[in-house]
C-alpha cells in the first residue's frame, strides 16, 4: 500500500476505515437539519393556511398558521382583549389558532356548552379541552372533571347546597358576615380624633380588594366547612386561600408548555410530585392525628403545604355523618363510600369551592365599586334608591334587595364590563365524531372552541356603546319581577339600548357545567353592595388610575389593591 493519504480502491472497508470516512463537518450536518426543519415548518404553515379543515374560517393569517401569536398574548395576559378587535374585523366566528375557533355568535352559548340534541345527538356534551384544564392542578374536582357521569354525581350532591331554598335557610350566615364587614370597615376607615393635639378625625384608605376577599372567604369557608376562616376578624387574608389563588394564576407558564407539546411531560412531573408526598396526603377515617395535605406548587415547582384539619376532623370524627344541616364537605362525605370517592377528590372539591366561591365574587364587588366611584351620577342614583328604601342593615335581606332594580342593573352592567372570569372556557370537538354544528358552521373533530367572555360582552354588534358603563341598558319597564344575567329570555324593551342582546350576558356560563355557585354569588353581591351603599360614601384614593385597564386577564384577573376613602353614614 502506498504511503500517501489516499485509500487504495482495492483495500477492504474495515471498521477503522468506515469511522475515518464518516462526515466530520458538524456545521454541515447542522445546516442540513436546520434546512429540513425550515422546510417542514414552511410546509406546515402552508397546510394550516390552505389545506387544514379549518382553512375556510376567517382570521389573521399569522393566527391561522401558527399557535405562537396566541401564546405570546397569553403570556402577556391580554389574549382576551386581543380577540375583540379581531371579532370586530372578521365577524362572530374566527380562527385564532390552527386548531381553535372563537365565537361571539348568539347561538354559540347553547351549541358549545349546552346539551346537544337533534342533529348533534352523536355528541351529548362537548368535553373540556384537556390542554387547558389538565395543567390547572392534579387534584380532581368538579371544575376539571372530564367524566360526564361522575361530574353529574358530584354536582347533584353539591347543587342542593347552592339552591335558592338552601341559601335562604342559611341567610343568617351571609348576613352575619356582611354585618362583620360593615362593622370592621366603620372601625378602621376613620382615625379617632386627638383632642389633646387638636387633630380632627381623618379618613384612612381602605383596600377594598382585600376586604371583599375576606368577607367572601369567610362566607364560603363557613358554608364549606361549617366555620369561618377568620379573615374579617383578623383583618388579614388567610395564607391558605391566598396560596391556592396564586397557584391557579401561576399555571399560565405550564399551560403554554402544554400547548407547545409538553403536556405529557408536565402531567408526569405533576403526578410524580404528588406521589412523592402521598404519605403526607393520606387521610382515612381511622387517622388520629392532623394530616398535612399537599397541593401542586406554583409555576416554579415549589411545594405548597396546606393544613387541612377541618377535612381531617370530618374524615375521622364520624364515619356516618348525621348532621341535620350538613355543610358542603359533609354532603360529599355522605357519598364517599357509595361513590368510591378518594380523599384527593374530597380535598380537590373543597379547594375548588373555596377558590370559585370567593375569588370571583370578590373580584366583581371590587370592580363594581371602582366603576361606581368612576361614575358619580350612577353612584348618586344608586345611593338614592338604597337609602330611600332602607333605614338599617337589618332591613336588607336576600328577598328585599330584589326590589332594588337600579342596583340589579348596576350589578349586571358590571358583570358585562368586568366579567370575573374574562376568558373563554374551552371545549373540544371529539375526534371521530364526524364534527358538530356550532352557530351554523360544521366544526371538525379535534377543534377547540369557546365563547370568550370579554369579546362577547363588548362586541359592538350586540351592545350599544359597549365600552361604557351604562346600567340603564339593563332596566326593565315591565313588572315581571327581577331578572339577572344568565336569563336566556332577558330582553330590553325600549330606549337607546333596545337592540342590546342582554340574553348573551352569561358570566356564569350555560348548560350542565355552568357555575354551580351562581345563586350564592348573586346573593352575596346584592347583599354586600346594598349594605356598603347604605353605610358609606365612597371615593377613590387614586381617581386618575385606570384600575381595570392595567390588570392582566389570565384565567382570573390579577387585581391590585383598590384604595378607597370611606365616609361612614349615620343611620
UniProtKB/TrEMBL annotation:
Keyword annotations: Heme, Iron, Membrane, Metal-binding, Monooxygenase, Oxidoreductase, Transmembrane, Transmembrane helix
Family indicated by similarity: Belongs to the cytochrome P450 family.
Keyword Glycosyltransferase: no
Keyword Metal-binding in record: yes
GO molecular function, a single term: oxidoreductase activity, acting on paired donors, with incorporation or reduction of molecular oxygen
Organism: Phomopsis amygdali (Fusicoccum amygdali)
PANTHER family per record: CYTOCHROME P450, P450, PUTATIVE (EUROFUNG)-RELATED
Cofactor: heme
SUPFAM superfamilies, A to Z: Cytochrome P450 (SSF48264)
Record InterPro entries: Cyt_P450, Cyt_P450_CS, Cyt_P450_E_grp-I, Cyt_P450_sf, Cytochrome_P450_monoxygenase
Protein's name according to its UniProt entry: Uncharacterized protein
Binding-site positions, heme: 515
Gene3D superfamilies for the chain: Cytochrome P450
Transmembrane segments: 26-47
Record Pfam families: p450 (PF00067)
Amino acid at each position: 500500500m502506498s504511503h500517501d493519504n489516499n485509500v487504495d480502491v482495492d483495500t477492504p472497508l474495515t471498521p477503522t476505515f468506515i469511522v475515518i470516512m464518516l462526515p466530520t463537518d458538524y456545521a454541515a450536518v447542522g445546516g442540513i437539519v436546520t434546512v429540513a426543519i425550515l422546510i417542514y415548518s414552511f410546509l406546515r404553515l402552508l397546510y394550516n393556511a390552505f389545506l387544514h379543515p379549518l382553512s375556510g374560517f376567517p382570521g389573521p393569517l399569522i393566527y391561522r398558521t401558527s399557535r405562537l401569536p396566541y401564546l405570546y398574548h397569553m403570556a402577556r395576559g391580554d389574549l382576551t382583549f386581543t380577540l375583540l378587535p379581531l371579532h370586530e374585523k372578521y365577524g362572530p366566528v374566527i380562527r385564532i389558532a390552527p386548531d381553535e375557533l372563537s365565537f361571539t355568535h348568539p347561538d354559540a352559548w347553547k351549541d358549545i356548552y349546552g346539551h346537544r340534541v337533534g342533529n348533534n345527538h352523536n355528541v351529548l356534551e362537548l368535553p373540556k379541552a384537556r390542554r387547558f384544564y389538565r395543567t390547572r392542578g392534579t387534584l380532581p374536582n368538579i371544575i376539571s372533571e372530564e367524566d360526564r357521569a361522575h361530574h353529574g354525581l358530584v354536582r347533584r350532591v353539591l347543587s342542593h347546597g347552592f339552591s335558592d331554598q338552601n341559601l335562604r335557610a342559611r341567610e343568617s350566615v351571609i348576613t352575619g358576615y356582611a354585618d362583620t364587614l360593615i362593622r370592621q370597615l366603620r372601625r378602621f376607615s376613620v382615625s379617632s380624633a386627638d383632642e389633646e393635639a387638636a387633630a380632627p378625625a381623618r379618613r384612612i384608605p381602605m383596600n377594598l380588594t382585600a376586604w371583599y376577599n375576606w368577607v367572601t372567604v369567610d362566607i364560603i369557608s363557613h358554608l364549606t366547612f361549617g366555620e369561618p376562616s377568620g379573615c374579617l376578624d383578623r383583618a388579614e387574608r388567610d395564607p391558605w386561600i391566598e396560596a391556592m389563588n396564586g397557584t391557579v394564576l401561576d399555571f399560565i407558564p405550564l399551560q403554554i408548555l402544554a400547548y407547545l407539546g409538553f403536556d405529557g411531560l408536565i402531567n408526569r412531573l405533576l403526578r410524580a410530585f404528588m406521589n412523592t408526598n402521598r404519605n403526607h396526603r393520606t387521610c382515612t377515617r381511622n387517622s388520629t392525628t392532623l394530616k398535612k395535605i399537599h397541593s401542586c406548587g406554583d409555576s416554579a415547582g415549589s411545594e405548597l403545604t396546606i393544613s387541612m384539619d377541618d377535612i381531617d376532623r370530618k374524615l375521622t370524627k364520624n364515619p356516618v355523618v348525621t348532621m341535620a344541616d350538613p355543610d358542603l364537605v359533609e354532603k360529599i362525605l355522605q357519598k364517599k363510600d357509595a361513590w368510591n370517592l378518594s380523599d384527593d377528590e374530597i380535598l380537590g372539591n373543597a379547594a375548588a369551592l373555596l377558590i370559585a366561591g370567593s375569588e370571583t365574587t370578590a373580584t366583581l364587588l371590587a370592580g363594581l365599586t371602582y366603576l361606581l366611584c368612576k361614575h358619580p351620577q350612577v353612584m348618586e342614583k344608586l345611593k338614592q334608591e338604597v337609602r330611600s328604601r332602607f333605614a338599617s342593615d337589618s332591613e336588607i335581606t336576600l328577598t328585599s334587595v330584589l326590589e332594588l332594580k337600579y342596583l340589579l342593573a348596576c350589578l349586571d352592567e358590571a358583570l358585562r364590563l368586568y366579567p370575573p372570569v374574562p376568558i373563554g372556557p374551552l371545549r373540544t370537538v371529539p375526534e371521530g365524531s364526524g364534527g358538530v354544528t356550532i352557530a351554523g358552521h360544521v366544526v371538525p373533530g379535534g377543534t377547540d372552541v369557546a365563547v370568550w367572555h370579554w369579546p362577547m360582552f363588548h362586541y359592538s354588534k350586540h351592545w350599544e356603546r359597549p365600552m361604557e358603563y351604562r346600567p340603564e341598558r339593563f332596566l326593565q319597564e315591565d313588572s315581571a319581577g327581577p331578572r339577572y344575567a344568565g336569563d336566556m329570555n332577558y330582553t330590553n324593551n325600549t330606549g337607546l339600548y333596545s337592540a342590546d342582546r342582554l340574553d348573551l350576558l352569561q358570566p356564569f356560563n350555560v348548560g350542565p357545567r355552568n357555575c354551580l355557585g351562581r345563586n350564592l354569588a348573586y346573593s352575596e353581591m346584592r347583599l354586600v353592595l346594598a349594605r356598603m351603599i347604605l353605610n358609606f360614601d365612597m371615593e377613590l384614593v387614586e381617581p386618575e388610575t385606570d384600575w381595570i385597564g392595567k390588570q392582566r386577564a389570565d384565567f382570573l384577573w390579577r387585581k391590585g389593591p383598590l384604595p378607597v376613602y370611606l365616609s361612614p353614614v349615620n343611620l
